[in-house]
Amino acid sequence: MNFNCCCYLLLIFTALGCIFTSHPFVIWFLLVNILTLAMYGVDKMAARRAWRRVPESTLLLFGVVGGWGGAIAAQQ
């Protein structure tokens, strides 16, 4: 399984896990931002080492569903 599929599975597990918390939207945004930040970090590392990179559509999708703060932080 490649990294792209793992990221989508983590996003699904995050969504399912947030349903059962007392503050689902706060937990959702926190976890999605952390996941997006980690994905951007892995993508930057892959670019430096000439590995297979994370598709741009995946990075943008994670930014749209709530990880825009993590994406902005990772780009800096």
**Helix segment tally:** 3
Q: Summarize the helix and strand pattern as letters.
A: HHH
Helix content: over 70%
Which residues sit in consecutive blocks of at least 5 with pLDDT less than 50?
none
From the spread of the alpha carbons, the general shape counts as globular
Biggest β-sheet, characterized?
none
Mean pLDDT, to the nearest integer, reads 90
User: What is the rounded Rg?
Assistant: 13 Å
Percent range for β-strand residues: under 5%
Compute the number of strand runs: 0
Distance between the termini: 29 Å
Q: Structural class of the secondary structure composition?
A: mainly alpha
How many separate domains? Answer: 1
List keywords for this structure.
76 residues, mainly alpha, 83% helix, 0% strand, globular
Protein topology:
Blueprint lengths: L2 H17 L4 H26 L6 H20 L1
Helix pairs in contact: 1-2, 2-3
Q: Can you describe what's shown?
A:
With 76 residues, the chain is mostly helical. The protein has one domain. The protein is built from three helices and no strands. The N and C termini lie far apart (29 Å).
